[in-house]
Amino acid sequence: MAFSVVTVYHSGYGHTAVVAEAVNSGVSEVSGVDAVLIDAGELNSPDAAGFSVLDNADAIIFGAPTYMGSASAVFKTFMESSSSRWMEQKWANKIAGGFTNSGAMNGDKQNTLVEFMTFSMQHGMVWVGLGQMPGNNHSGGSESDPNRLGATIGLMTQANVDEGGDTAPPQSDRETAVAYGKRIAEATIRWGS
Ligand SMILES: Cc1cc2nc3c(=O)[nH]c(=O)nc-3n(C[C@H](O)[C@H](O)[C@H](O)COP(=O)(O)O)c2cc1C
Description:
Layout: E1 3-9, H1 15-28, E2 33-39, H2 51-55, E3 59-67, E4 70-71, H3 73-81, H4 83-88, E5 95-102, H5 109-122, E6 126-127, E7 155-158, H6 171-192
Parallel strand pairs: 1-2, 1-3, 3-5, 5-6, 5-7
Antiparallel strand pairs: 3-4
The site of flavin mononucleotide (FMN) has 19 residues, from helix 1, strand 3 and strand 5.
């Protein structure tokens, strides 16, 4: 039976949705793994039907824009709606990962990733970091480097605030996202076999 990796995300203006799709496409590159995308807006109460997809997943990847230095309110509503799962430790030992997108290069994205990691630890999950060396950190580097923002604990992407999701975040961030999705899928197979 195939493993299931679910990416649950929120996106107010379309940028984080592009990242979620890139992460999901990286997951789908790994054979033996089903890649599923879910909008966190549909998971705004513990009784929401979509929660069963997460309950049955082998891995869950959490993604939200950074708004005011932490995960967006829609995503936080999903997080709080998951507390009944926490009570039963229903997601314990599933693989977890996370990503966030914001307008500024830094933009306090680290705080959002730490929030996701803490959330995953509360659920007893097994966190998988980005696993990519930092790009754009030497005189020969550029904005086109993979992991140009130099994240480690999860995936960070950046979208210029005057651009739409058709061009922002840039290609390098999208490629970094695909690689992270692939890494999570591979980790799911290794953890589960
Ligand atoms: C309410 C609000 C708060 C924001 N706070 C931050 C922030 O703390 N740091 C930052 O760099 N950008 C911030 N931004 C910009 C967004 O992170 C950025 O536009 C992002 O691409 C939005 O992602 P989305 O299109 O998926 O909603 C904020 C935007 C909004 C609407």
